Amino acid sequence: MKRFIKTILVIVVVLGLLGGAAYGYYYYFGPGSNQDSTFRTEPVKRGDLLVTISATGTVEPEETVDVGAQVAGQILEFGKDADGNQVDYNSHVKAGMVLARIDESVWKIAAAQADAQVLSAEANLQRAKADLDQLKAKLVQADRDWQRAQKLGPSDALAKSSYDAYESAYEVAKANVAVGEASIVQAEVGVTQAKAAAEGAQRNLRYCTITSPVDGVIIARRVNMGQTVVASLNAPSLFLIAKDLRRMQVWVPVNEADIGKIRPGMPVSFTVDAMPDASFRGQLRKIRLDASMTQNVVTYTVEVQTDNSDGRLMPYLTANVKFELDRRDDVLLVPSQALQWAPTSIEQVAPESRAAYEARQARRAGRGEAGNAASWRGQAAASMPATSRPAGSRPAGAPDNSRGGQDGHGVLWVVSGKFVRPIEVRTGLTNGAETEVSGEGLDEGMEVVTGAAVQSGSAASGVNPFAPRRPGSSKSGTSNGKSGTSSNKGGPPPPM
Asked: What does residue 489 show for φ and ψ, rounded to 5 degrees?
């Protein structure tokens, strides 16, 4: 009896294994193993398309003035701003207002000494003039003595030595007059030098009072009360004044690859991190020609002018800038991915569209009927992810729909039941993510295919038919709408 029961159990186990093997064979190789595909779609929408170049810059005041000290000394006090408060950050000042005062005691002494030198030089001039008058009087006397001596001549009445002495005295007196005249010139120069030194000393004394050269707002105060400033070769900076914060600039470094696409006067939009929900408008004003190179990358600084009448923009904010290269308003837009997708097999195309599409592919490939298969393979390869296709390759017969179709034409696919059918369109401007399209049979809201998601539960999916399934799943599986792939992440990609 026990042997009979064991035999029955062995037979049941063997039959179970054979049944499982048969089920597995049928599951993997039977009619139910054919893959079914669902399509990911997105609607055709109407809107505005903007093609831009993005860059990051800095908001700068349109014009700034760096106010420095031209003399050394200790800061004794600050002036008053337009509101009567002590000069500080954000103070509004007018041209000529006192910003700060430097200790002027040392410079007063220098000015007094310079004034004394002027008086001394003027006294020397007066003395030189008086000496010249004396020398001229002596010259007149010497001239008269010499004339009398010439009348008498060397004789018994006038000795030869006396004659020579009168002549010599006359010549000496004449030379002394010339010396006196030169002394006057020298004294006059001394007076001029002394006056210049006195003017310099007075100017240095005035430099102790630092005033604003322009109307504006103080955006930086770099000294404190009691601090000593030292002005030697370079004037130390004390205040930075923005002349007019109602007009601002954005300084943007632009890569050399993009600099040829922009031009002065083009519209610009930008945002700042401090106000991410606010958008600002501007205009490209200038492209500076002094390029800089960093790690073999050449960049040019571009100035963007913008209005800041509301005062929301503050200096030195980081700006995310978009240079508007081109724009289309109120046009039909589709995802650029929709123009790059193509069916992986002829069976996915609606029966009524297969002949027309094959003919179109034959015309494009120029291969006749024999080239259709190759063009379909090219379509399939073009729709593969970039990581699945050799870099830079595009099979023969595959339509080049990148950048919205370089030839101005493209094909969109729309779902028709379990199949897809093509719609030929004209392509226009693209920003990479979206492309402008137009054509007959294309309407706003129409769903276009952007990809195909292979459903799980087939032999190719690599799912064990004996493994337990998740609640709610079936043999056909469900599509993962986000990734566009099977919900079974372990399965291989769909056959092409």
From this structure: -75, -15
Same domain, yes or no: 156 and 215: no
CB 323 within 8 A of CB 269: no
- The mean pLDDT value for 226-251 works out to 87
Indicate whether 352 and 482 sit together in one domain: yes
Element (H, E) at 207: helix 160-207
Helix/strand/coil for 15: helix
Any idea how long the chain is?
496
Q: What is the pTM of this model?
A: 0.60
Amino acid identity for residue 398 in this structure: A
Q: Whole-angstrom Cα distance, residue 316 to residue 57? A: 9
pLDDT digit string (tens) for 248-267?
Answer: 999 999 999 999 999 999 99
Same-domain check for residues 168 and 145: yes
The reply to whether 187 falls in a domain is yes
Q: Kindly state whether residue 322 falls inside one of the protein's structural domains.
A: no
Residue in 344, 419, 415, 409 with CA at minimum distance from that of residue 376: 344
The answer to whether 409 and 421 have CB atoms below 8 angstroms apart is no
> 401-437: per-residue pLDDT in tens?
334 444 588 889 998 888 888 888 999 988 889 999 9
Tell me if 258 sits within 8 A of 291, measured CB to CB: no
Going from the C-alpha of 246 to that of each of 62, 92, 310, 319, the distances in angstroms are 9, 13, 8, 17
Strand runs labelled E in 308-385: 318-335
Per DSSP, the three-state class of 234 is coil
Detail the DSSP E strand segments found in 378-454.
Answer: 409-416, 419-430, 434-438, 447-454
438/327 Cα distance (integer angstroms): 16
3-class DSSP state of 121: helix
Rg (the chain; Cα; Å): 49
First-to-last C-alpha distance (Å) of the chain? 59
Same domain, 402 and 462: yes
Q: Which domain holds residue 444?
A: 36-49+333-486
Closest CA to 206 of 67, 352, 41, 71: 71
Retrieve residue 196's tokens.
């210049």
- Same-domain pairing of 449 and 377: yes
Domain boundary among 152, 185, 207: 207
Helix (H, G, I), strand (E, B) or coil at 262: coil
Q: Which residues contact 426 (CB under 8 A, 6 or more apart)?
A: 408, 409, 410, 437, 438, 439
d(CA 331, CA 52): 17
> Has residue 55 been placed in a domain?
no
